[in-house]
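Support case: user asked for a sample of complex input and structure output to validate their parser. Sending the pair below.
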Amino acid sequence: MKYVITSVAIIGIALLILLAKSLSNTDLISSDTFRFLVALSVFFVFSLIVLIAIQVFRLLQSVKKEIIGSRLTLRLVLSFGLMVLIPVSIVYLVSVNFLTKSIESWFDVRVESALEGGLTLGQKTVDILVNDIELKGKSIAYSLSNTLPEKRQSLLIDMREKFAIQDAILFNKNGSINLISSSRDDLIPPLIDSDDISKASEGYFIKIEFSDDIETGDKEIFLKAYIPVNSNKAQQKNVLDVSSQQEILMLTQPIPRSIANIAISVESVYEEYQQLTYSRNSLKVIYTLTLTLVLLLAILSSVAISFILSRKFSRPLAMLSDATKEIAKGNYKKFIPESGKDELGVLVKSFNSMTSQLDIATKNAKINRKGLEEARSFLEIILTNLVTAVVVIDNSNKIRLYNKSASKMFNFKLGNAEGKLLANVIKNKKLYEGLLRFIEEYLGNPKKNKKQISTEFKFELNREEKIIILQISPLAEKIAGSYVLVIDDITMVTKAQRQFAWGEVARRLAHEIKNPLTPIQLIAERIQHKFSKKLNKEDSSILDKSTTTIVKQVNALKVMVNEFSEYSRTPKIEKNKLDIMLLITEVVDLYTNKNFIIALKNKKDQIFIEADENKLRQVLINIFDNAKDALKNIKNPKVSVSLDQKSDKILIQIKDNGIGIPQNIINRIFEPYITSKDNGTGLGLAIVNKIIEEHNGSIKIENQVNGGVKIIIVLPTKN
Amino acid sequence: MMAYFMHYLKSNKHIYAALIIFLFSGNLNALEGEKNIEIKDFNFKKKENSYSIGFVQKIQLSKTIRSAINKGIPFDFKIVCKVFIKNNLWFDKKIQEVELFYRIKYKNLKQVYEVQGIYGEKKEFNGFDEAIKSLNVIKGWNLNFDNSSKTDVYYIVLKVKLDKKKLPKPLQVNFFDTAWNIESIKYNYLLESLI
C-alpha cells in the first residue's frame, strides 16, 4: 500500500508540475501532451479513489470483525482526512475564487475601450494620411498630365517638395521609370509589380507597407499611392495610342516614426488583448482543472498516506492489545517487535520486558508447583500406602485430611469425610468410644494439646481382641489448630510378640528338659530290671508300677518336648508344586475307618499350589487328630472336608459335629497351652497356625450354630 | 516492492483495465466537435517525375471564430497529405508525408484581411468572405514519391485543420472548448482510381 501510494504521489506531483509548465506559453508541452497529462492525472486520481475505497472497505470489514486496532486506525484515518480536507478545501475555494477574479480583472471594459480607441485613433490617422497622400498624388498626377514633357521633371520635383513627399516616381506601363524625385540622396530606384501597374491602370490605390529600420530596428509604416497619370492633348500630339502613353505615379510617404510606433504598438497590444480575451474562459477552465487535480491528488494522497500513518501508529497499540490478550490467556512467550525510540517504542520495550519477567516468574512458579505437587503426590502415596491410619483434624475435631488406612479402620468412605466431625464419620462409635473421648479431652485441654501423646486402646471386634495405639500431636505453628492422629493396629504385632515369647519359652524348655529325660528313662528301666527280681512280689509289683509310670511320663515329656521343639523351631519350609487335592485325599484315607468317616466334598481332579507338603500334611493331621478326639463320645460322628479354588487362593473347610470349643478359649485357641482337651499340650493348633502363617495363609476357627467346629484355611496358590 | 505492486495490480485488475480502456480508447475524441472543412473536387495529375494535387475546400467558420479573426487573432491552417501502401496484415506503410500551411489574419491598422497562401504569397482583401474565398482553391501542390511497385496498393490521406499550435496556449490546451476544433475529416483517395 505505502509503495503504491508513494509511487502515485510522486507521479502525481510530476504530472502537476508538467501541467503547470504547460500553461505558460512555451512549446515545451503540446496540447496533445497536455491532454495526455490531464488524462493521466485523472487516471491517478481514480486509482487513488479506488485504492482508498478498497482500504476503507477492508478497514470497515476489520472493524466489523472487531480486529484489534481497526477502530483506532479508522479514527486516526478520519482525523487525518478531516485535518487535510478542511484546510485544503478552504484553500481550494479561495484559490479558485481568487484565480477567477484575477483573470476577470485583466479584462476591464475601460482597458478594452482605451485599446479600441487607440486602435481607432491609429486607423483614423492612417486614413487621414492616406487621404492626404491620395489628394497630393492626384494633384501631382493632374499637373503632370497637363505639363509639357520637358517641364515634367522640374514640376515633379517642385510638387514633391511642396507636398513634402519622400519619393515620387513615375513609371511607364512597362515598369520603367520615366521620372523620379526623392528627398533621399541614397534612394535606390525601386521596381514596380506588374499587378500594381495593372491595378493602378484601373484606378488609383494606396498600399500601406510595414518595414523594419535596419539601423534602429524600429517598425516603419510607408504609404504607397499608385495613381494613373493620363497624357493630355499636348503630350498626345505625336502619339497614336493613348492607352500606351498612360503612366503610373508612385508616391512613397512614411508615416512619422513616433505615430507609426504608437500605432503599431497599439495594434499589437490590442491583438494580444483580444487573444487574451478569447483565452479567458480557457484559462479559467485550465487553472480550475489544474487546481482541482492538485486538490484531489493532495487530498487523496493525504488520505491514502493517513492509512499508512494510522496503521503505523495503531500497529504497536494493536500488537500490545493482542499481546495483552495472549498474556491474559497465559501465553507469556508473546514478543512484540521493537521499533523506534519514541514513547510507543519505550512502551513496547517495557511490555516485552514485563512479559519476559512474567514468563520467568511463571516458569519458576510452575517448577515450584510441580515440586509441590510431586511432594504432595509423594505424601499422598505414602499416606495411601501407609498401613498406619493417619487423620488430621482441626481443633473442633473436624477431619481435614485422612488416608486410606484410616477410612478402612474407621469404616467410612474415601473422599467423603473432609470437613466432618470425626465422631460422626466413624460408624462403630461404641467400639471407639474410649478413643474419641480421649481425643476430645486432648483437644479441650490447652496444656495437653501442645504436646505429643501416645496411648493404647484394647477392644473386642468380631470376638477378636484388637489393640491399637493412638499418637496425637499438634502440627507446626504455620498450620496451627490442626492435629495429626496416628493410629496403629498393633494386634498382630502383639500376637507375634506373644508367639515369639512362647517360642522362646518352648525352645528353652525343650533344651533344658529334653536332655535329662533319656537318662531318667534309662535309670528307671535299669532299676526295674535290677531290683524287680530281688524284691518280693508286692514290692516288685510296686517297683514295676513305679518305673513303668516313670517311663510313661518320660515318654510323655519327650512327646511334649518334641512338640515344643517343633513349635519353637526356626521357620524353614520348602515349597514345591503340590497337588493339594491329592494330599487331602491321602490324609483323609489315612483316617477313614469303620468308626470314623471323613467325607470329602467338591472333589476335583487336581489343584496345584506351591507349598511344603510335609508341613501341610502335619496341619491336616493335627486338625483331624483334634476332630477325632472331639468326636470320641459322639454318636454318628461326621467330619467333612471341602476344597474350593478362588482365583489365586484355595479355601479348605473342615467341619465336624463334635462338642465344639469352649467359648472362653476360642479367641485364643491358636496360642500355645490353650486347649480344651484334658491331656492335650495346647501346641497342636498353635503349630497349625504357625505353619499356615508361614505359607502366607490364614486360619479361622469357629463354633457352628448346630454344634461342632468349622475350620477355614485360606492358602495362596502361588508363592 | 515490485512484487507487492504486481500483486496489488492483479487483485484489482478489472478496475484498472476499465480505467485504462476508458482513458486510451479515444473517448476523449468525443470532445473534438464537428468537422467544418469540406474537401471536394480532389484532382491528381501526373507530371514527369511527380504528382500535382489540387482540391477545393469549403471552410465554414462560426461566429465566434469570425469574430476572433476580425479582432486580429491569426488563424493558421494546416493541410496534411500522406501517402500509404496498404498492408493487409499489419499497419499500412507510410511512404510520404507533406504539410502545407496557409494563414488568414485581419490587419487592424490597415483594416484588411491578409491571406498567406500555401507558397507563402500574401494577398490583402477588404472583405472577410473575399479572403476566405481566396483560400478555397488549392492547386499545383507537388508530391514526389515512388509508386513503381505494381503489386502494392497506394492511397492518399488528406486532412485540413486549424493549426492550434499557433493559437494562444490556453486555447490550445483547453480541450473542453470545441469551438476551436476546425478541421476536415480524413479523406482517403486510392491512387489507382485517381490516375
